[in-house]
Amino acid sequence: MSSTRMQYFALFCLALTIVCLTIVMKKWHFGLREDFGDPVLNTDFSLLRRALLQQIRERQQEIAPLYNFTDRSSEIQSDFSNSDALRLDIGCSDLSGLTVVEFLGAGYTKTVSKVVLQQGSEVALKTVNYQGTDMRSCLDDFRDPQGCQDLVSSKIRKEIILLQRLQHPNIVKLKGQCQDSALVGGIIAVLEQGTPVQMIQLLQSPWEERFRVCLGLVRLLHYLSLSPLGSVALLDFQPRQFVMVSGELKLTDLDDAIVAETECRTSSDCVLQFPLRNFTFPCTGSGVCQGLNEMKNLYNAYRYFFIYLLPHQAPTELKHLVDQIMNTTADLKHTVNKTLEAFEEVLEVYKSGLHLQNMPSSLIKDYAVLKGMGTSGNKEYNCWPSYNHEGCMLSVHSAEEAAHICNSHPQCTSFCLNGQKTWTGRLLASFRTGFSHLVPDVSSTVYVRTAKASAATF
Ligand SMILES: Nc1ncnc2c1ncn2[C@@H]1O[C@H](COP(=O)(O)OP(=O)(O)OP(=O)(O)O)[C@@H](O)[C@H]1O
Ligand SMILES: *[C@@H]1O[C@H](CO)[C@@H](O)[C@H](O)[C@H]1NC(C)=O
Ligand SMILES: *[C@@H]1O[C@H](CO)[C@@H](O)[C@H](O)[C@H]1NC(C)=O
Ligand SMILES: *[C@@H]1O[C@H](CO)[C@@H](O)[C@H](O)[C@H]1NC(C)=O
Ligand SMILES: *[C@@H]1O[C@H](CO)[C@@H](O)[C@H](O)[C@H]1NC(C)=O
């Protein structure tokens, strides 16, 4: 979809929200009048009401132990943190002058909008999705807008409490919350803003960026397996539960997380079922399925992310390590701990350039090195997968690796390193067919190919 069409779509969705809100409120008033008028409906209503209250109570009971945790931790925190940190929390009063900029996403339960607060910061607001399946099926069952809002809000409440307890670079940051706002009704979670995970776009990005996503995921799973709440399993584990924030994958949907291991009597109670594979885990003496939660997460990471993102175009010398990760994860042979170790090893080898040991080092001799120079009037060519769209920009360990790449591209006559780096600290090199002038640039070095080196492949 083009960006203008996206904007129209977002506007349409916002308009729809307002229309539906109005309908919901009207229904509510109508419902009240109707129920007081008719004694038969009245009994019906009180039965339904009791059933709904029961559901709300069950949700509250599920969340209660998590609140207990927070109470204790916030006592501890307040001993250490200064009041500044507490004041940074965004509350209802900070939301009063907000401007809705963009619709970011919606699911069964929640709607997320990008807003600008009065003081100028951009955040994502998560609220009840009044058109969502959760809200609609509740209204169908109970015809009680206020009660249904409470019921659906309890999922956001659970998410907020989990976001307070579980803090990790690969979990979206909770910036604040608002309990009772005249703006939307129900509870609002204020989050750092990301962009929805676009699998198609990720598939087209450099291996280094795809590896970053998978590594972040495994670091997250390692944290969840040893979290302050115990071993956390994500029941719903799909790309749409995550967002990207500056190239880093972050979990945003936590309402389907469970924090308790499965109870069991025998190992037959500890079966993980997936469409193509089943796994059985041991039942421990204390009557819980050992490792079930972390393995459920790991296999989901494998089937929704690794398969698509990890093996494809891995650097030749890392292929063996990557294949090993794929093989062991496909059979759940290793714990999350061991899997993380394997990932960190891949990262170390990649960062150190160890995987380039067999590259001929003399290639750089074919290039004139012009330090403190940049180029203008560039003649670009395309390569894949490039960091920029109108040219060929690739990540390299060193000028030697860049020379190696330039030699293997028939269109390449020069390349330029200007100090820009990727998340691993590797250098971004721009490869070119030509340029018209050299211009002084202290942060840049131009390498111009002098001898026509053979385009032999190494
Ligand atoms: N912090 C954020 N920044 C940008 N977009 C976000 C953010 N959080 C969520 N989104 C988008 O909003 C969508 C809905 O959020 P979320 O997954 O929490 O709702 P949900 O109703 O639980 O969804 P589902 O039906 O998938 O369980 C997400 O798929 C994501 O694309
Ligand atoms: C909260 O913690 C206290 C003691 O730490 C415990 O006695 C109480 O049962 C807990 N409440 C819930 C709801 O878990
Ligand atoms: C997994 O277990 C279920 C239930 O026992 C069974 O029906 C299914 O065929 C199994 N799937 C595979 C792939 O083994
Ligand atoms: C992974 O498994 C495949 C097939 O099962 C096998 O051919 C390959 O050698 C294995 N690779 C590693 C690194 O174990
Ligand atoms: C995982 O590794 C950490 C240290 O990084 C260790 O403390 C923990 O006990 C390990 N867990 C398992 C299940 O091996």
TrEMBL record:
Gene3D superfamilies: Transferase(Phosphotransferase) domain 1. It is found in: Golgi apparatus; Secreted. The keyword Methyltransferase does not apply. SMART domains: S_TKc. GO terms for cellular component: extracellular region; Golgi apparatus. It is an enzyme of class 2 (transferase). It holds the Pfam family PIP49_C. GO terms for molecular function: ATP binding; non-membrane spanning protein tyrosine kinase activity. Residues 98-370 form the Protein kinase domain. It catalyses: L-tyrosyl-[protein] + ATP = O-phospho-L-tyrosyl-[protein] + ADP + H(+). It comes from the Eukaryota. GO terms for biological process: cell differentiation; ossification; protein transport; skeletal system development. Its EC number is 2.7.10.2. Keywords: ATP-binding, Developmental protein, Differentiation, Glycoprotein, Golgi apparatus, Kinase, Nucleotide-binding, Osteogenesis, Phosphoprotein, Protein transport, Secreted, Signal, Transferase, Transport, Tyrosine-protein kinase. PANTHER family: PROTEIN KINASE DOMAIN-CONTAINING PROTEIN. This is Extracellular tyrosine-protein kinase PKDCC.
